[in-house]
Design brief:
The chain is an all-beta fold and about 80 residues long. It has a domain of about 45 residues: Rubrerythrin, domain 2. About 0% of the residues lie in helices and about 15% in strands. The radius of gyration is 12 Å and the shape is globular. It starts with a strand and ends in a 35-residue tail after the last strand. The structure holds zinc ion (ZN).
């Protein structure tokens, strides 16, 4: 199984997990706080780092915008 990197928007923890490819984008349980909000980081190259990461995921826009980047929603 491939290893993916995940980041928890609640506590900011970044960790990697081995998952089947079919579940790569499903939320996973955070290793630090236990919430199931951690999202896959799409790239190891210069991930977008925000102080609290509220809803933002690297390369995937956020919950508040429908396009692929957050330039349309002000984040
Ligand atoms: Zn967490």
């Amino acid at each position: 199984m491939p290893v993916y990197e995940y980041r928890c928007p609640d506590c900011g923890a970044v960790f990697s997990k081995m998952r089947p490819m079919s579940q790569a984008d499903a939320p996973v349980e955070c290793e630090r706080c236990g919430k199931r909000n951690a999202r896959r980081m799409l790239s190891r190259i210069a991930p977008v780092r925000r102080e609290d990461g509220a809803g933002a995921s690297a390369g995937g826009g956020c919950a508040g915008c429908s396009s692929a980047n957050c330039s349309t929603c002000g984040r």
